[in-house]
Amino acid sequence: MKIAVLGASGLVGRAMLSQLEQCCWVDELPLLLTSNRSAGTKIDFNNQELVCHAVNEDSFDDIDIALFSAGGDVSKKYAPIAVNAGAVVIDNSSAFRMDSTVPLVIPEINPTASKGIIANPNCSTIQIAMALMPLHKEFGLLEAHITTMQSVSGAGLAAQQELENKSVTELDIIPKIGAPLSDGSFTEEDKVVNELRKIMSLPELGVTCLATRVPVWNGHSAAIRAVFANEVDREKAVKALAMFPGVGVAKSEHDFKTATEVTSKGEVAVGRLRLDSTNKNALLMWVVADNLLKGAALNAVQIAGQIVESGS
Amino acid sequence: MKIAVLGASGLVGRAMLSQLEQCCWVDELPLLLTSNRSAGTKIDFNNQELVCHAVNEDSFDDIDIALFSAGGDVSKKYAPIAVNAGAVVIDNSSAFRMDSTVPLVIPEINPTASKGIIANPNCSTIQIAMALMPLHKEFGLLEAHITTMQSVSGAGLAAQQELENKSVTELDIIPKIGAPLSDGSFTEEDKVVNELRKIMSLPELGVTCLATRVPVWNGHSAAIRAVFANEVDREKAVKALAMFPGVGVAKSEHDFKTATEVTSKGEVAVGRLRLDSTNKNALLMWVVADNLLKGAALNAVQIAGQIVESGS
């Protein structure tokens, strides 16, 4: 298998390479692709120094799977080129996620053996879907009301540097991620709402989302109130979450993990799981995950692993 | 009027003194009271250096109004003593808030001319009630689902010092404030739920709350989804908030203030006010305030001002 990573020098690109280092099916050194600006950057891969190359129209000629994480515009330009060259593209940008012909995949939820372009969902959406899917199977999800608290690593290296240079009194929470939309939301909120519906195959799901950027280095948190068709049972909910691959759950209503605690881990951790005193069909919960791993690189590499498996 | 401030050297105590400096009805220097440990601390009041005295059973003999912010145990011990000595006690601790004989007061919502002990509500509760009350009057509040993001100043000077000493990768969000309760909540969440019901005179109000501590120096934020008896109208909601004393509201659905932006200001700022696409009777919003001011010291001094006015 010949793998290319486009956007290899970014936070997600580097995390993809770390994940690929651990994959037994990676039997050739990956091709590292970047913009012209970042070409020449050297990155270690299994103790070998690889050099990033500037992407061009011929970059994908020998590639089986191309992992893209270089922004929507780059994806729009190079994904069709890579597919034409015979590669499967797993795209971490939002460019194709809502395209009805493109699968939007979380391997534990809606695995695919598709070729062509496969979209990797939004970071917050992935961890929220991972927490809601087992509960949906148990109780039938009707509504999810979500407040996200997203770390600066989700905004890239520059945002991390900005946080590093802030004085303690400048730390703040900004309830605005992305661009404004006509319905009053921002694009990040719209992604959570609509990607969740697509991934869970629940086009009518009632979802609200307020997305905030928080002064946390890495790891996203989400406070969720979920309303179901059926009366919930806390023990059944804990069991459903615990049985779901990739999800961990705190047994006690008071226990939880934090974003920083799950950093560098692949797990989606559900905590503070409680009955809602206002509605016997509702649950409250706290969900954290490493947005660079399960929220991006790990999920993309898991999709790649399923493609490899389905082709072998 | 002779005023005493018990807990004068703490964050809230000092903020109370700053507020009292601006009150025309304060015509004598206040008496500054602390624990034995903090006695001797010097604090400026209108450019005069005042010295903190250790509180004792005779401290309140000449006092008209005593502002308490020294923790629940201190309040339980000294509030009855101060009342017996003829003072009105305005208590910022949680000791008496849910006592049915004690008014729990936000002057803009439920003013009082009561004597004896008056309780100052929880910091988050105040800003949430200030945002919900005008909307309740307009549409009839049925439910409020709240996620708070509370700054470290709410946990006192030691917590601020702890934040100051953290490295950037240690910043984290902790969904746990206070002590665990048998219903799965923590005390801070219980305060928001039950104090809101008492202040708004809505004992049956459906409230859920997840309270988190965030790495922010000062100023609390709250994400609220509110469900009403009647269909909501965004223009009416904005108008009702704008007309309510002490509340500011952003005109656009995309606009907002942050916790840091309202620090040192008396305002409760409502932003990101949006219709809820899942329910025509619901609104989403973002509410920030300075937890040391409207969330504590300012509200307490406003109560004191109403007592003075009602007695004159």
CATH class of the largest domain in chain A: Alpha Beta
Number of strands of chain A: 14
Spatial order of the strands forming the largest sheet of chain A: 5-2-1-6-7-8
Largest sheet of chain A: 6 strands, parallel
- List the uncertain runs of chain A: none
Q: What does the average pLDDT of chain A come to? A: 97
SS-derived structural category of chain A: alpha/beta
Helix percentage of chain A = 25-40%
Overview features:
homodimer, 312 residues, alpha/beta, Rossmann fold, Dihydrodipicolinate Reductase, domain 2, six-stranded parallel β-sheet, six-stranded mixed β-sheet, globular
Give a written overview of the molecule.
- The structure is a homodimer of 312-residue chains.
- The first copy, chain A, has 312 residues and is an alpha/beta fold.
- The first copy, chain A, has two domains: 135 residues, Rossmann fold, CATH 3.40.50; 167 residues, Dihydrodipicolinate Reductase, domain 2 (2-Layer Sandwich), CATH 3.30.360.10.
- In chain A, the strands form three sheets. A six-stranded parallel sheet of chain A has the order 5-2-1-6-7-8, sandwiched between helices. Chain A has a six-stranded mixed sheet with strand order 10-9-11-14-13-12. In chain A, strands 3-4 form a two-stranded antiparallel ribbon.
- In chain A, strand 12, helix 7 and strand 13 form a beta-alpha-beta unit.
- In chain A, helix 3 runs parallel beside helix 5.
- Chains A and B meet through strand 9, strand 10, strand 11, helix 7 and strand 13 of A and strand 9, strand 10, strand 11, strand 13 and strand 14 of B.
